Amino acid sequence: MGYISIYISTALYAAEGVSFPHFFPSLTLISFVRSAIVGTMANSLCASTLQYLQKKNLMILSQEMDGVNGLSAYIFRNTVEQSLAAGHTVEEARIAATSTLYGLTNMQAMLVSWKEIFRGITLFGILVLLGLWFTPYIKPTVRQFPKIKNIWKYVWGKAYAGR
């Protein structure tokens, strides 16, 4: 749904500002930029941010995993008991329990990281939408083009100032 709204809004923007002979080349250029370049940049940004946040969150979440923590001790003990019941040795059962704890912590770190990325993207989107919403109502402080009477005053003032 997001891509559809972006496609429609950029096409309407191009329709307003571009004359008809140049409309289709500009539409092709806009679609290339938004599909190829922006998608690749967004994917790269999300992947590198996820990698950084996942390492950070894994470090934070695993700080309190020890035998004193009730949840981690329960998971460790339960996994060891299940592995011993399945016929594994004590060493294999402990390795399986440690791997289970690591996997659960890694999954939780990934979920927290995606939550932080989604929060940042949502906040950025809301700010962009608010900016687009209030842009037509902002009064420009400097006029882009001078009025004709000011141009004439400037031209005739220069002409008469030299005499």
Could you explain how this protein is built, in words?
This protein is mostly helical and about 160 residues long. The protein is about 80% helix and about 0% strand. It has five helices and no strands. It has helices spanning about 1-15, 25-60, 70-85, 90-135, 150-160. Helix 1 (about 1-15) runs antiparallel to helix 2 (about 25-60), helix 2 crosses helix 4 and helix 3 crosses helix 4. The longest helix has about 45 residues, at about 90-135. The N and C termini lie far apart (about 70 Å).
Mean pLDDT: 80
Class per helix and strand makeup = mainly alpha
Helix content: over 70%
Number of strands: 0
Low-confidence region ranges: none
Number of helices: 5
Intertermini distance: 68 Å
Q: Please give the radius of gyration in angstroms.
A: 31 Å
Order of helices and strands: HHHHH
How would the global form be characterised?
elongated
Largest sheet: none
Please report which band the strand proportion falls in: under 5%, 5-15%, 15-25%, 25-35%, 35-45% or over 45%.
Answer: under 5%
